[in-house]
Design a protein that fits this description.
With 299 residues, the protein is an alpha/beta fold. The protein is 51% helix and 14% strand. The longest helix has 17 residues, at 195-211.
Amino acid sequence: MGLLDKLKNTFQKTSNVISLAITGKKIDENFFHEIEDALIMADVGVQTSSNLAKGIADKKFEKNTSELKIKEFLANEIASLVKPYENKEIFDINHSPEILLIIGVNGNGKTTTVAKLANMFKKKGEFPLLIAADTFRAAAVEQIEYWANTIDVEVVKGNLNSDAASIVFKGIKQAKDKGNSVVLIDTAGRMQNREDLIAELEKIKRVIKKLDETAPHKTILVLDGLIGQAAHTQVDTFLTKIGIDGLIVTKLDSTAKGGTIISLTQKYRVPIYAIGIGEGIDDLQLFSAESYAKAIVGI
């Protein structure tokens, strides 16, 4: 299956919700309300959904306008909204090494995302190093070791419940000594309401800066696409407490709420680096506003 087919499959549940509001419907006042309701159901956000529906109404389509024409118009409107947040700089290497801090709540697909990123960096000819800074769960270290073996990259780890910041310090020093071009740090899952866990992330950032005052060069929040509007609470906390350079949104193939990408960009103005389009090691795709917009409306 090609990437475009995978992307269409990823957003099938979301596009089904939107398509139901358009397919076989008469273009009248009720039609625009149905589209607005469908967009809200897809977690696009109330105000943005209202604006998009109004845009379709203002276009004054003929009564015999094809469903495809309406979908194309809606896709173009969505693409224009999210285009400013399409950011492919995640793979830019401007430091030696480039240090990426990957953060997020437990269960968001963070560790798998770290492995997928390392795989993409390696395919681009880079020399990645993984740091297993989740010392709370033995399973997390085992998982990242499994992926590291799968893609043949090295991983730095410590003992269970050891100090995560010290492992990060050790890993970055090793990367500098061995000439790794990029370091990916897999941190423990943080519930955004746990101040102690947030404090440990702040400590990790301080330790990183002792070795490179410009780092971390990218702090990436991994979000679970299944949680819809609840993702806003996570972005709120991590943006305020830690700082975020961009987002990666996972598990979008399992939800009808794929519009959450739109609501997140419109509210927080943060870049979307990539999206998860499946569970395989190659199932991470750089975010494309145009491809996303087409997939979400089902064209």
